[in-house]
Specification:
The structure holds 2 protein chains of 2 kinds. Mean pLDDT of chain A is about 85; it is low at about 1-5 and about 590-605. By secondary structure, chain A is of the alpha+beta class. Chain A has 22 helices and 23 strands. Chain A is elongated, with a radius of gyration of 34 Å. Chain A folds into 2 domains: about 50-210, Alpha-Beta Complex (Penicillin-binding protein 2a (Domain 2)); about 310-470 and about 485-590, DD-peptidase/beta-lactamase superfamily (Beta-lactamase, 3-Layer(aba) Sandwich), CATH 3.40.710. In chain A, helix 10 (about 245-255) packs antiparallel against helix 21. The longest helix of chain B has about 35 residues, at about 305-335. By secondary structure, chain B is mainly alpha-helical. The mean pLDDT of chain B is about 85. In chain B, helix 9 packs antiparallel against helix 10 (about 220-240) and helix 12 (about 265-275) crosses helix 14 (about 305-335). Classes of the chains: A alpha+beta, B mainly alpha. Chains A and B meet through helix 1 and helix 2 of A and helix 7, helix 12, helix 14 and helix 15 of B.
């Protein structure tokens, strides 16, 4: 009925032999593929499996002021960590309640950590307080995979604020991680603004690694190779700032009730002595964990607390800009020291009248600076022309970045022919547009930092400096001090011109009829210039720039107070007190509150 | 003397078996010495000693006695299998363990041998011919009864071994290719149906072509094809009516690496262990995957990883070569054996050992679904070791008696 072959037919034997050979050949090929072709890949996975890498966070570098006083410190902080592979997810809600966190947040952090490695600890909460730490520690036996770890966090000595200058550190965001990658991981802290961000590579130090053998249950079996392969963490480098701690504190207290900025610079090297932006916030807000609520509150505050007004805002400089016009006109030979005009309180250009505050009568360039005569500069800026004005402004550091080391800054705005052509259209704007530029009004924008730098070259006789807050970095490996070099350029103004302009600035402060008498410092002479910048949104912005002592200046300053009124009345006294404190150093640092009341009283005196 | 021994003593099978047992013992030692002071190793070594004795005894029992006792052996294992279905203890979700007073074992290990012997014994009767449908049916029943008893435990792996042993036995016994194809095609179609409709249709078309190529008559082709389609369709309908978790269990079975934290975990870790071994391995007792117990109960089904990790490609390919040599040697014994019983039994023993080896090592290397089959001579477990060594003893017996009719 069926075709039956004899048992064990030779053809069938060959088929069975082939099946055996083919099967084992496949197995051998697979073995070859796994062990020889993909060996590296599996070897790496095997290493990751059996070795738990414990990352040892480095201690971040410190910051000292110019006198060696500690300004930014580090202290201990405890983090709660979780190893995804060992964590019992049924304890998630219990752990969340101990940490006072939303279970969904814990779950999310756990999931994100798991992507990197199931066996590496994920930081669930940073900088827990001692009560929380104690609660977690007591319940550790109920929470497999949970551990805590000591790390460091930023601490700020009493009185230190300077949040815009020092900056802050924050947990790295996904966007930052994608950008810097490499040495950073999810949950790491990274300098996110100010000096913390600019000097991140110096400050952060290097992570250390401890290698510990573990079995598949995650039980620690002890250090790998007796700890010989461990890499200790390396401390971050310290920064030595040019900032004067006492001066900074005083400046902050003087600025407390204002919106604005103050920048004081050493006119000899460009070192920032004090940098204030108000309103501000406590830097310690960022030292441990910054909750989403706190962050949103800071970030969405209508007063823009996080915004560094000293470097990032663009204000019209008002009359403080007049030395730019004067220097350009004198240097170009358009006028000389004998050139005079008659000010009758207004300047007519075409059918438009540009007003002055007073009728100044006959004034030369020095008197025009001393008394802040607008008419003098209205007509002078027309003589110079827009192109020269632009050229000189840029030479003096306006309309371009200062390359300060504090972080983000604005280049400001100095109008040019191209600018007007672009904004208004070619031929659709007239010379009348530039008249108000003569008194620093209109489409001119400068940052308080640029103004301090401007005050500094006026102080030092024409050297444009690169402002900076860090003088040197202490290399913790070599224990050497690396002094940082900064750029210096000459503004190219003849000393005879410098002498006239500086004389005008001296008279602003020291002579009757000067607008800056309120900045006078007892015992020494100083130079300065007031500015009152009109703005369409409210009261005038008050400006003062100055330097002291007049002959051998040690400090140059720019003060800008938004919507505060007259520069001579409001900004000048603050500048005067800051300069006085720096030169004589008598205001006690630990009496800030007293200084503040005193300063308010003083201000009334100067009115 | 030596030539006399060579004539009657199968050195090759014996030495391959001893080599594999020794490598297996080393692997078990490596995988367990830190866990329970090598208790598993000591027990396995004891069983290896017992196994060696059993092997030697089996090798020298007169062949006729073996043949005569095969049905008694067969029915007693059937009885034990039936009993444990009712009273057996459940180990790892499967009732396959039989224990009396502290001594226990897995009867299914011996049921495989008994079934092969009974099958061979039946077909070697002078009045039985596989060409007769009635005799073929009885022969199939000899296999089917223990197979279903074991499937009911449930022990899928051993069921697969039964099936994989039956096919070469039928083939060797001379069953027509068409019948073999007719048995295979429904399975092919059913597996295809588990993967999806397209695969189901593809498998059905391929099956139809195979059936047509090996056709004996058109009617039989139509019947076989109809059965295959019916099986495939019912699998599909069954699958669609399953709960999601049941479907997931099946997809995970077919592709364990899709679930790396669950069923796929062992596979992933096993591949890491083998792959990280490289060419020469990490050295005896130095495999990190093995020593840190990344693979749960590695000493049972995943013992091949130890060799892969600690002895590398050199060691693992040597082990595979030993198994291949044993399989080819078994086939050779079947070929040179002049009596039907020995020849068929040798094919059965070879089929069992080869199936176990290919499925187990293939699983450890991530080529096959995880079906829980031990690696012969190597995986920890007394019943399996003694059963496997008994099979080698039988092969040696068939070799010694190859010239008898």
């Amino acid at each position: 009925m069926m075709n039956v072959e004899e048992i064990g037919a030779p053809s069938r034997k060959r088929v069975l032999i082939s099946i055996i050979i083919v099967s084992f050949t496949f197995l051998l090929l697979r073995l070859y593929q796994l062990q020889l072709l993909y060996h590296t890949e599996f070897g790496k996975k095997s290493d990751e499996n059996s070795v738990r890498t414990i990352i040892k966070e480095p201690v971040r570098g410190y910051m000292f002021d110019r006198n060696g006083r500690l300004m930014v410190d580090v202290g201990p902080a405890y983090s709660i960590n979780l190893i995804p592979a060992l964590f019992d997810t049924s304890t998630l809600s219990f752990l969340s309640s101990l940490l006072q966190m939303e279970p969904s947040v814990v779950q999310e952090r756990l999931n994100r950590g798991r992507i990197y490695s199931r066996f590496s600890p994920v930081r669930i909460r940073r900088d827990v307080d001692f009560k929380t730490l104690a609660a977690v520690e007591e319940n550790l036996y109920l929470l497999p995979g949970v551990s805590y770890e000591m790390e460091s966090k930023r601490l700020y000595p009493f009185h230190v604020r300077a949040p815009h200058l020092l900056g802050y550190c924050k947990e790295i965001t996904d966007a930052q991680l994608a950008k810097v990658g490499g040495a950073y991981q999810q949950g790491d802290i990274i300098g996110s603004s100010g000096l913390e961000a600019s000097y991140e590579t110096f400050l952060r130090g290097e992570k250390g690694f401890e290698f510990i053998s573990v079995n598949s249950k995650g039980q620690l079996l002890g250090p790998l190779d007796g700890g010989r392969r461990d890499i200790p963490s390396k401390e971050g480098f310290d920064l030595n700032l040019s900032v004067d701690f006492g001066l900074q504190t005083l400046a902050e207290s003087l600025m407390t009730n204002y919106r604005g900025a103050l920048v004081a610079i050493d006119p000899n090297d460009g070192g920032v002595l004090a940098l204030v932006s108000k309103p501000d916030f406590e830097p310690s807000v960022f030292s441990g964990v910054t909750s989403v609520e706190v962050w949103n509150q800071l970030n969405n505050d209508p007063e823009k607390l996080l915004f560094n007004r000293a470097t990032m805002t663009r204000y019209p400089p008002g009359s403080t800009f007049k030395m730019v016009i004067a220097a350009a006109a004198l240097q170009e030979g358009i006028i000389d020291e004998h050139y005079r005009i008659r000010c009758n309180g207004a300047f007519r250009f075409g059918n438009k009248i540009f007003k002055d505050m007073h009728v100044h009568g006959s004034v030369d360039v020095v008197e025009a600076i001393q008394r802040s005569c607008d008419v003098f500069f209205y007509q002078l800026v027309l003589k110079i022309g827009l192109d020269k004005l632009n050229e000189y402004s840029r030479r003096f550091g306006f309309g371009q970045l200062t390359y300060v080391d504090i972080g983000e800054e604005t280049a400001g705005l100095i109008p040019s022919t191209e600018y007007y052509n672009r904004v208004y259209g070619k031929g659709k704007w007239t010379q009348g547009y530039i008249v108000s530029l003569g008194i620093g009004q209109g489409e001119v924008g400068v940052s308080p930092l640029q103004m301090a730098r401007y005050a500094a070259w006026l102080a030092n006789g024409g050297t444009l400096l690169q402002p900076h807050a860090v003088n040197s970095v202490r290399n913790k490996r070599t224990n050497k001090l690396d002094v940082i070099d900064y750029k210096e350029t000459s503004v190219g103004i003849d000393s005879s011109v410098m002498r006239l302009i500086r004389e005008g600035m001296r008279r602003v402060v020291e002579m009757p009829g000067g607008t800056g008498g309120a900045a006078r410092i007892r015992g020494i002479q100083s130079g300065g210039k007031t500015g009152t910048a009109q703005n369409p949104h409210g009261r005038d912005h008050a400006w003062y720039i100055g330097f002291a002592p007049f002959d051998h200046p040690k400090i140059a300053i720019a003060v800008m107070l938004e919507n505060a009124g007259m520069g001579g009345a409001i900004a000048a006294p603050i500048a005067g007190k800051v300069m006085q404190r720096y030169i004589f150093g008598e205001v006690p640092v630990n009496a800030t509150s007293r200084t503040r009341t005193a300063s308010l009283n003083d201000t009334t005196l100067y009115h | 003397m030596v030539s006399y021994l060579k004539e009657y003593f199968d050195f090759r099978a014996c030495l391959i078996c001893i080599a594999l047992v020794i490598i297996g013992l080393m692997s078990i030692y490596s995988a367990t010495f830190d866990i329970n002071n090598a208790a598993n190793f000591h027990r396995q070594a004891l069983w290896a000693g017992i196994g060696f004795l059993v092997m030697m005894i089996t090798a020298f029992i007169p062949l006729r006695t073996v043949q005569r006792l095969s049905f008694a052996f067969y029915f007693s294992t059937l009885a034990v299998l039936a009993i444990i279905l009712v009273v057996g203890s459940t180990v790892k979700g499967s009732k396959s363990w039989f224990g009396v007073g502290g001594i226990g074992g897995q009867p299914s290990e011996f049921a495989k041998i008994a079934t092969v012997l009974a099958f061979a014994s039946y077909l070697s009767k002078t009045d039985v011919s596989i060409s007769q449908v009635k005799h073929l049916f009885i022969a199939l029943c000899i296999f089917a009864v223990p197979m279903f008893l074991i499937l009911a435990e449930p022990d899928l792996g051993t069921t697969i071994v039964f099936f994989a042993t039956l096919l070469p036995l039928l083939y060797w016994a001379g069953v027509s290719s068409f019948i073999l194809i007719a048995i295979l095609v429904p399975i092919l179609v059913a597996v295809g149906a588990l993967f999806g409709t397209a695969q189901f249709l593809g498998a059905a078309i391929l099956g139809g072509i195979l059936l047509y190529l090996f056709r004996e008559n058109r009617f039989a082709v139509a019947v076989a094809f109809g059965i295959a389609l019916a099986v495939g369709l019912s699998v599909q309908i069954l699958y669609e009516h399953m709960h999601v978790y049941q479907q997931k269990r099946i997809t995970t079975f077919l592709n364990p690496e899709a679930d790396p934290l669950g069923a796929g975990y062992n596979i992933v870790q096993s591949k890491i262990a083998i792959g990280s071994g490289g060419f020469v391995g990490k050295g005896f007792l130095k495999g990190t995957q093995t020593q840190l117990n990344y693979i749960p109960e590695q000493w049972t089904d995943f013992i091949f990883c130890v060799q892969g990790e600690e002895f590398g490609f050199l060691g693992a390919s040597f082990v595979l070569s030993l198994f291949a040599a044993l399989s080819l040697h078994g086939l050779r014994i079947a070929t040179i054996s002049k009596n039907k019983f020995g020849s068929l039994s040798a094919i059965g023993m070879t089929g069992i050992l080869t199936t176990h080896t290919v499925i187990n090592t293939g699983m450890a290397m991530g080529m096959m679904p995880v079906v829980g089959l031990p690696l012969p001579f190597m995986s920890y477990g007394g019943s399996a070791l003694i059963a496997n060594m008994t099979m080698v003893g039988l092969l040696m017996n068939f070799y010694a008696n190859r010239k008898e009719y």
